[in-house]
Amino acid sequence: MSARDAILNRLRNRRDGELTAPVSDFSVVEAKQWSVSDRVDLFQQKIESVHAEVHRVSQTDWLDKLKALVQAKGLNNLLVPQKAQVGVDIRQQWSDDLPELLSYGQPIEGWKAELFSGVDGAVTDVRSAIAETGSLVLWPDNDQPRLMSLVPPVHFAIVDADQLKNTFHEVIRSEGWVNQGMPTNALLISGPSKTADIEQTLAYGVHGPKELIVLIRQ
Amino acid sequence: MSHNQSAAQGAVKAFHPRVQEAINNPQIRANFRKAMDGLMDKRLAAFPQDDELQQLRDLAAAIRLRALSKLPELLERLEANLTANGVKVHWAENGDQACQIILDICQQKNAKSVIKGKSMVSEEMELNHYLEKHNIEALESDLGEYIVQLAEETPSHIIMPAIHKNTDQISDLMHDKTGTKRSRDVEYLTAEARQQLRERFEKADIGVSGVNFAVAETGTLCLVENEGNGRLTTTVPPVHIAVTGIEKVVENLEDVTPLLSLLTRSATGQHITTYFNMISSPRKEGELDGPEEVHLVLVDSGRSNIYQDDELLDTLRCIRCGACMNHCPVYTRIGGHAYGYTYPGPIGKILMPHLAGLDDAKDLPSASSLCGACGEVCPVRIPIPKLLVRLREEAVAGDSQHNDSGVKGRGSKRSTSESLIWKSWAGMHKSGGLYRAGTGAATVFRALMPNKIGAWTKCRTAPKLAASTLHQQVKARGKNGGES
Question: What Gene3D superfamilies does the annotation carry (chain A) (predicted)?
Fold first, then answer.
């Protein structure tokens, strides 16, 4: 008998008989609701508490803020999506005196070394965001691949205030994740990469970005 | 349970000396005391509203029980959905088989180097040793695991593997093994480790990770982490192999939301970890990164045996947050290594006897004061103290108790003389005459009580019997007028 069949057989022929499933009452999760403006405040408070940098901007001045931040942080280049609207806007309104814009234009195999050591920062949009835990929700795709929000030392995330949901549970339910089918990779990001493995002392950027900068467009 | 079982057995034989050694080591005592005090405070602060915590615990326990109640169906559903997504699913009866499956994949891919995200199941099956024996390098990438691997040790905590070391010790270790400067600057040490590991990530042939929750409904593998090494491990190498115990499956995607919330808050007091990584398929056409191949290895290793028993089943609810060890007075004093097994602390004491056998792990269920803290903080309400008592009974069980419990090594701690003493004790207490005669005789011959009674008098004085029995005293009092 295969290991699979042997294991399943043992589980099916349980000595103490069949088990019954208790009821799962999700009301404690569903009860968490905030007003739209409270959601923004809570999101900011939560994500700042884990060392992310948050700027509230408007739909018209967000690019100026981004340009200023990129310069202030002394970045030499910036990886930007090609198709997503944030990427299109950045590319249209960038100027030559600003750091060079890069594209994730080929499979990782073709430029792994460059991505790992030559890219200073990256910009992504988000699918939604979660107020309760201060989390960004990303579904990486061809335009904004998985390593874009992970390998460069600085990650800029552009969030619209109306993308904020109350809880992770609400995100899954209201966006119909189960029915539309899960992507290759779905992610919650809450702060920059961190570790406390050396004597519980927090240190940032252990493997992923050292800095997470969130622009909330209102 | 595994090819290195003999090593584990050696460790168990030395259980009491190990404990003594740990208790006498001021460094271990100080490192763990400081860390556990901090973790207890952080957990408390993460649950400001007790009613929310209790409702969440009820929900999480119900979700885990629901998953277990449908375990065979959910495993099949998980397999079917993952397979439809393009993930290859493997089944292993034990750690050896799981190691062999992973080795086969490595050999097919001509892999020379494996990079690992944190996985306790891979520790349980001693995957690193196995791969190294076959000339495949297995490198841990979680910072704590990396430190432990540099020191050629095993994790002393399931969440914080290097918690037994302080900054100076880690600085010395990294200096000796990797040539970094000696420094108490944690940022410097972390940045150095980042650089060392980044080079390895770029070159690794295969990434191996664990799984926190496997969602049957969607065929999704969920990983909880802070560092990003889990994401790198599961994204950069061309092949990703996830390995997990069969009990980690949950039914629905929404089930992970309360479990995740309880896991991170109970473990380290974080409202959420930096990354929650949900993987459902290998790289699809047109995608620019991610592994071309994803495998899941489902490992049994005694779990289906635990599953047979209504009471022991609760052991399988565990979501591996480590709160039980953070709150355990025994763990805090002796640290993780003294136990001598992959999983230390209260969860280890109720899990390892099944994985290794009670004959091997017979001392674990007794290494507890039954204070109950572990059961009180468990986010999925596992009645750990009750299970410790059950395993103590199993260890000394004769023919009558839990007759066909199926616990491996059942009765291995039973001694003829001890069971005879308890049988006489029971007999004496059942008969009034015998009881009075016995206690009466004991008071008469009380001078003969030995001053040394084994382990009891190592750090206590021997009990002394009173000159007369309680019955005699009460009787005398009644004669003197009966005042109380």
Answer: NagB/RpiA/CoA transferase-like
* pLDDT tens-digit series, residues B304-324: 999 999 999 999 999 999 999
ipTM associated with this complex: 0.98
Residue A123, classified by CB atoms within 10 Å of its CB into exposed (0-12), middle (13-18) or buried (19+), is buried
Say how many domains are in chain A: 1
- Report CB contact under 8 Å: A194, B226: yes
Q: Residue A3 domain-assigned?
A: no
Chain A closest CA to B201's CA: distance in Å? 10
Please report, for chain B, the start and end positions of each structural domain, with discontinuous segments joined by +: 5-305, 416-479
Instruction: Note whether B115 and B228 are within 8 A (CB).
Output: no
B166 touches A: beta carbon within 8 Å: yes
Q: Between chains, do A10 and B304 touch, taking CB under 8 Å as contact? A: yes
Tens of pLDDT, residues B349-396: 999 999 999 999 989 999 999 999 999 999 999 999 999 999 999 999
Number of A/B CB contacts below 8 angstroms equals 257
- B315 inside 8 A of chain A by CB: no
- CATH number for position A172: 3.40.50.10420
Whether A150 is in a domain gets the answer yes
Which DSSP letter does residue B281 get?
Answer: S
Query: What letter represents residue B12's amino acid?
Result: V
What pTM value is reported for the model? 0.94
CA distance B117 to A47: 25
Q: How far is CA B440 from CA A63, A120, A198, B429, B432, in A?
A: 93, 86, 61, 13, 12
**B5-305: CATH class:** alpha beta
